[in-house]
Amino acid sequence: QVQLVESGGGLVQAGGSLRLSCAASGRTFRNYAMGWFRQAPGKEREFVAGISWSGSSTYYADSVKGRFTISRDNAKNTVYLQMNSLKPDDTAVYYCAQDRAPQRTVLPSTRKQYGYWGQGTQVTVSS
């Protein structure tokens, strides 16, 4: 059974940084693309960033490009989201997700393409 456990959320002032981590278990981690999504109150869950199964490709939402960096450590079965220059609009619950299919050639960026989800971690950015 796949388990994804996020950590690293918290309260930070605007302009600050946080690093989220997601530890995965249950499938061969290195075979699957990973993604981060977020959901603010009253809004749909939205894609934030994704990284290919090999780690060679990354993709970001326009709203976080240049500020957030996704990375993975296949030896530790962990994916990270480094968030810099945080803004109040970044306030949301952040979810880690794992691709449904192994070794996909095109990096997934929609909710439907991700089959497994963590419980979420709250990120609050104060102004």
> Which range does the strand content fall in?
over 45%
Q: State the helix count.
A: 0
Main sheet characteristics: 7 strands, mixed
**Could you say which overall geometry the principal axes of the C-alpha atoms support?**
globular
What does this structure look like?
The protein has no helices and eleven strands. The strands form two sheets. Strands 2, 4, 5, 6, 9, 10 and 11 form a seven-stranded mixed sheet that branches. With 127 residues, the chain is mostly beta strands. The mean pLDDT is 96. A hairpin with a 6-residue loop joins β5 (46-51) and β6 (58-60). The protein is globular, with a radius of gyration of 13 Å.
Give a quick precis of the structure.
By secondary structure, the protein is mostly beta strands. The protein contains no helices and eleven strands. The strands form two sheets. Strands 2, 4, 5, 6, 9, 10 and 11 form a seven-stranded mixed sheet that branches.
